[in-house]
């Protein structure tokens, strides 16, 4: 897999949302420890001056939160938190802003999020015309004949009110195979050259679990649904182990930048679990990841569910 950067977009081009960033600090709890025997238990960081939601039924809102060593040390009224403020404690006045517990994405694909950032990132594209412009720009930076691969588009709300097709891609990049994956990972659109190189024609049958979209004459439109996408993905190639490690770290960084503190990582290749654990151990993955492996991992996970990185990386489920 050859990374192709979107010309108008730097990696991690995500909007920072202050309330969500603050949310990351309410993801865990532990008791404070003194810096030395007998020393006051001062916090490293204290949040106050806003509406602080805890999610706890017996104390839904509090006045202040104290943090020690990156974890919640205490949450409650100012009378309980103020004694934890020492000479070196950083105080953040929320100035009326809201602070929430950590947000967790219940269904995501961490490697896909990372690869989206590492290739031609199509998140937020607002029309087929814009999609074509981005592909045309990428074609100018890509050697003739090399595959242009991107992901993240979704046609919902586009003024054209239709899927993109091979004609759209052919006009933008006639000398390159182009494969663009939909945001949900359940479809790709491929250019005519990509279809030709993959031997996908009007005579190609729909694969099990997939569908080739066709025009009135029976010719492929370029849209390949679910397992039909596999017909062209050999042109992209599987990511290397190094690229996977980068993708997991990059995807986790995107989530952290948005203020998410965890995700349920679906259909994980069992062999990739160790890469995620390594990344968390090395400090490259700071969020919590609850892995649901694909069916190939059933026996191993049933025999030995696993947890690592201080409980932040958990693998004990299967995505059917």
Explain this structure to me?
Helix 3 packs across helix 7, helix 4 packs across helix 5 and helix 7 crosses helix 8. This protein is elongated. With 320 residues, the protein is of the alpha/beta class. The strands form three sheets. The chain has a six-stranded mixed sheet with strand order 7-8-9-10-12-11, sandwiched between helices. Strands 1, 2, 3, 4 and 5 form a five-stranded mixed sheet that branches. It has a five-stranded mixed sheet with strand order 6-13-14-16-15. The relative contact order is 0.13. About 9% of the residues have low confidence. Helices cover 25% and strands 28% of the residues.
Write the layout of secondary structure elements.
Blueprint: H1 18-23, E1 45-53, E2 61-68, E3 71-76, H2 78-81, E4 90-93, E5 98-99, E6 103-108, H3 110-118, E7 120-121, H4 128-141, E8 148-153, H5 166-172, E9 178-182, E10 187-190, H6 192-197, E11 210-214, E12 220-226, H7 241-258, E13 260-268, H8 273-281, E14 288-293, H9 298-303, E15 306-308, E16 313-318
Parallel strand pairs: 1-4, 1-5, 6-13, 7-8, 8-9, 13-14, 14-16
Antiparallel strand pairs: 1-2, 2-3, 9-10, 10-12, 11-12, 15-16
Helix pairs in contact: 3-7, 4-5, 7-8
């Amino acid at each position: 897999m050859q990374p192709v950067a979107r010309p108008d977009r730097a990696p991690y081009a995500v909007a920072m949302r202050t309330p969500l960033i603050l949310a990351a600090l309410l993801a865990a709890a532990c008791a404070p420890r003194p810096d030395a025997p007998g020393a006051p238990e001062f916090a490293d960081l204290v949040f106050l001056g806003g509406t602080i939601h805890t999610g706890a039924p017996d104390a839904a809102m509090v006045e202040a939160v104290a943090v020690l060593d990156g974890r919640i040390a205490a949450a409650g009224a100012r009378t309980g938190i103020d004694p934890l403020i020492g000479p070196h404690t950083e105080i953040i006045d929320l100035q009326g802003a809201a602070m929430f517990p950590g947000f967790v994405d219940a269904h995501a694909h961490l490697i896909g999020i990372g690869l989206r950032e590492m290739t031609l990132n199509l998140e937020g594209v607002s029309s087929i015309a814009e999609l074509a412009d981005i592909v045309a720009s990428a074609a100018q930076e890509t050697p003739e004949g090399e595959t242009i691969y991107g992901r993240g588009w979704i046609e919902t709300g586009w003024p054209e009110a239709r899927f993109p097709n091979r004609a759209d891609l052919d006009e933008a990049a006639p000398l390159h195979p182009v494969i663009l994956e939909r945001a949900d990972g359940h479809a790709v659109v491929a250019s005519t050259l990509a279809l030709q190189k993959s031997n996908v024609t009007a005579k190609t049958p729909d694969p099990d679990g997939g569908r080739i979209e066709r025009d009135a004459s029976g010719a492929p439109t370029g849209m390949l649904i679910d397992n039909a996408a596999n017909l062209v993905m050999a042109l992209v190639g599987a990511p290397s182990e190094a690229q996977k490690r980068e993708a997991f770290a990059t995807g986790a960084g995107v989530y952290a930048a948005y203020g998410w503190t965890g995700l349920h990582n679906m259909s994980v290749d069992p062999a990739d679990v160790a890469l995620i654990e390594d990344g968390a151990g090395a400090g490259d993955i700071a969020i919590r990841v609850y892995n649901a492996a694909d069916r190939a991992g059933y026996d191993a996970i049933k025999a030995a569910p696993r947890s690592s990185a201080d409980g932040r990386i958990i693998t004990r489920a299967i995505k059917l």
